[in-house]
Predict the structure.
Amino acid sequence: MPKTRVILELGSGNDLHGSDYTKAALRAVQDALHHSSLSFVRSLKIDRSKIDVEVTIGVQRPERVDIEKVRTSLPLGNVTVRAVKGGLDVPDPESNDHAVIASAAIAVRIEVA
């Protein structure tokens, strides 16, 4: 049976100095997580091993995101992470640096009878 998306949370995060795409991605994931509570998992006695969590991170340099660090930051479920082109880099020519802005979308899927 295909699983149904029951939650979609969005978040944003940044790294203002250092151009760390993983740090910005982790902050975006934490921002999204702080917008929701999965109390239905406990209330409905859903087996946590049957929850699929799909994370999409948007940044300008997706190849620089440590996918495994992002994956292990999620508290439950079978987590998959992908990084795609998105987000925003804001240059700071005076310091030869740029701020990294990441977007995160977290979809939670379960079997619905």
Summary: The two ends are 9 Å apart (CA to CA).
